[in-house]
Design brief:
Layout: H1 2-13, H2 23-32, H3 55-65, H4 70-82, H5 86-98, H6 102-114, H7 122-134, H8 138-147, H9 157-167, H10 172-184, H11 192-203, H12 208-220, H13 228-240, H14 244-254, E1 257-260, E2 266-270
């Protein structure tokens, strides 16, 4: 009864664009949408990881919405994966990929590339990443670059930059990935100013990784002014979204002094 009431409340409280969607899809999006899924509407925040308490709800409502929504089918795969039902997750991602979900193509590619729940097949992983990259999926581009070129030859990072550049015009994940390439000098010259600008754009869309990078750049004064207060604020926002690196950065800010023994082993830290 509580779940039914929650569906009704969420449907009524959803923004106007969501009223055209089923209540099942609204709730599926609320608990299981991937923030980096290009199919995700801009007004859906998404979750980096599906909370354990939401897994059963995600499976139920994403399954009901999946027959008419490829992003729900992809989200269903995420829910199964969170529930350690690897076989069901792969089956759902395969169905979503067949319907054109580039996010599902990436997850299938990762499964093939790592041999997780399926026979390892780097050639198949490459095909899936290529197809996702051609659709403009930023993770497809970055994973393809990481996998390397045909026959084990190095991937073309310059091409990866170009693909990400097109996707970065509208996509926060692409802005983040391109920012990483620019900040590390992959595929071209290192450019901290441009990287910071991209991280800032993605951070404005609540991208956890970009918020963490903005914290680091503000803390060190990379690509722009040094601002410890702004750095802490960025870290706090990223940590609230579950970013582990941001949580560690906040702990280092809180406990900046390390006391070590003669062997250099950490004994304790001094915190404020």
């Amino acid at each position: 009864m509580r779940i039914c009431l929650l569906v009704i409340i969420l449907a009524l409280a959803a923004p106007p664009s969501a009223h055209a969607q089923s209540a099942d899809l609204v709730l599926c999006d609320r608990v299981a949408a991937d923030p980096s899924d290009p199919d995700k509407p801009a007004d859906v925040r998404g979750v980096s990881e599906i909370a354990a308490s939401d897994v059963a709800t995600a499976i139920k409502f994403c399954k009901q919405a999946a027959s008419s929504s490829r992003r729900a089918m992809f989200a269903l795969g995420r829910a199964y994966a969170a529930n350690r039902q690897t076989g069901e997750a792969i089956a759902a991602w395969r169905k979503a990929a067949d319907k054109g979900s580039s996010a599902a193509m990436v997850e299938l590619g990762v499964a093939y590339g790592t041999g997780s729940g399926i026979a390892k097949d780097e050639a198949q992983a490459r095909k899936l990443f290529e197809k996702a990259a051609q659709s403009g999926n930023p993770r497809g581009v970055s994973n393809l670059a990481a996998l390397g070129g045909t026959g084990g030859a190095p991937a073309d990072p310059a091409q990866a930059r170009a693909l990400l550049g097109r996707a970065a015009e509208t996509n926060a994940e692409a802005q983040y990935q391109l920012g990483l390439m620019l900040s590390n000098g992959n595929g071209g010259e290192k450019d901290d100013v441009a990287a910071r600008a991209l991280f800032e754009k993605a951070a404005a869309q609540n991208h956890a990784g970009a918020l963490e990078r903005m914290g680091a750049f503000a803390q060190d004064g990379r690509g722009g002014p040094k601002d410890k207060d702004a750095a802490k604020a960025y870290y706090e926002r990223a940590a609230a979204l579950g970013d582990e690196d941001a949580k560690k950065a906040l702990e280092r800010i809180r406990c900046p002094y390390a006391i070590k023994d003669k062997q250099g082993k950490l004994v304790t830290t001094l915190c404020f």
